[in-house]
Design brief:
Order of helices and strands: HHHEEHHEHHEEHH
CATH class of the largest domain: Mainly Alpha
Helix content: 40-55%
Number of domains: 2
CATH architecture of the largest domain: Orthogonal Bundle
Number of strands: 5
Oligomer: single chain
CATH superfamily of the largest domain: Winged helix-like DNA-binding domain superfamily/Winged helix DNA-binding domain
Strand content: 5-15%
C-alpha cells in the first residue's frame, strides 16, 4: 500500500473577516491599552461618521455583554472607549499582573497634584516633604506631569497620559468631577488617617 503524503495546508494570512469594523474596533481597543476617542477609532475603520462609529461600538458592546466574559467595553463620560477587565475579576487575577508602575509615595504625590492642580512644586513639597522632588522627577519621566517654570519654582499639572492611564476624562470639567468623586469615596471608605 502506498502511503499518501498530504501537502501541508496553505495558510491564508488574511482572515475572511479581517476588514470587519467590529473586529477592527476590538483589535484597536485591545492593542491601545488605553481609552480611545472616536477620531482614533474612526481612522481604524476608515470612517469619519460618528453615527457609524457609535453604531459599531454599540454592537461590539452588546456582543461583549452577551458573552458574559471577564472583559467589557466601557464608554467614558468624555466620549472615549476602553476595553478593560471587569472589576469583579481584578482581585482574582491580581497575582498575575506586573508590579505597579508607581509605589505608594509617588502615587500619593500624584494624587495630591491631580486634586490641587495647577499647583507649584514648592506647595507640593511643603505638604508631601522633600521626597516629593524625587517623586515629581519620576512622574515627569513617566509622562504623568508637565512643568512650567515660575520664578524659582515650577507649576505642575497632569497630562493626557495620566488621564488615559487612570481611565479619567481629558475634559477638564469632567476630570475635576471624577477626582472629587474619587476623593469623596476614599474619605468615606477609609479611616480619617488620610
Amino acid at each position: 500500500m502506498e502511503s499518501q503524503q498530504k501537502s501541508p495546508p496553505k495558510i491564508d494570512n488574511a482572515s475572511p473577516n479581517s476588514d470587519s469594523p467590529l473586529q477592527l474596533l476590538e483589535a484597536a481597543l485591545y492593542v491601545a491599552g488605553r481609552p480611545l476617542d472616536l477620531k482614533a477609532l474612526g481612522s481604524i475603520i476608515k470612517t469619519r461618521s460618528k453615527k457609524r462609529i457609535h453604531k459599531h461600538l454599540r454592537q461590539l458592546m452588546t456582543q461583549y455583554d452577551a458573552r458574559d466574559g471577564a472583559l467589557e467595553i466601557v464608554a467614558l463620560k468624555d466620549g472615549r472607549y476602553s476595553l478593560q477587565l471587569k472589576v469583579e475579576y481584578a482581585s482574582l487575577v491580581k497575582q498575575l499582573t506586573l508590579p505597579p508602575l508607581l509605589t505608594l509615595g509617588p502615587l500619593k504625590t500624584l494624587a495630591y497634584i491631580a486634586y490641587q492642580q495647577p499647583i507649584t512644586q514648592s506647595q507640593v513639597t511643603a505638604v508631601r516633604g522633600s521626597q516629593a522632588y524625587t517623586h515629581i522627577r519620576e512622574l515627569k519621566r513617566l509622562g504623568f506631569l508637565t512643568t512650567k517654570k515660575l520664578g524659582r519654582t515650577q507649576i505642575l499639572q497632569t497630562t493626557p497620559v495620566f488621564a488615559d492611564y487612570f481611565n479619567l476624562s481629558r475634559d477638564a470639567h469632567l476630570f475635576q468631577q471624577q477626582i472629587q468623586t474619587l476623593r469623596r469615596s476614599l474619605e468615606t471608605s477609609t479611616p480619617s488617617s488620610m
